[in-house]
Specification:
The protein is mostly helical. The protein has one domain (27-100). 60% of the residues lie in helices and 0% in strands. Helix 1 runs antiparallel to helix 2.
């Protein structure tokens, strides 16, 4: 059907579907390890991006670059990107803490 998102067809409740072929068959200790590893690796990747964005933003700030059309300081381009990447890394770390605490 046009406009359908894969996995939503015929589901009146709108619940999401997951297919875990390997994860559910792993031992509990391996699942617990992976539940911490994936968010931690995501946070590490995002923090590496934040480091490079910080370097680019500081260079733009140092040189005082502006946009060619409107003469808006280019630092206003980099600040929202940096904030978004740092917030995404915080969410990854928060998910790691939630998954590692026993329920």
């Amino acid at each position: 059907m046009p406009g359908d998102i894969a996995g939503d067809r015929g589901d009146p409740s709108g619940d999401r579907r997951e297919v875990d072929l390997l994860f559910d068959r792993l031992p509990r200790s391996a699942r617990a390890f992976l539940a911490v590893l994936w968010p931690l690796s995501g946070a590490g990747f995002l923090l590496a991006i934040a480091w490079h964005v910080t370097k680019a933003a500081s260079q733009v700030l140092e040189y005082g670059e502006t946009s060619p059309t409107l003469a808006v300081p280019m630092i206003w381009y980099w600040v929202p990107i940096l904030i978004g990447v740092v917030l995404a890394a915080i969410v990854c770390i928060q998910q790691m803490w939630q998954r590692s605490t026993p329920t």
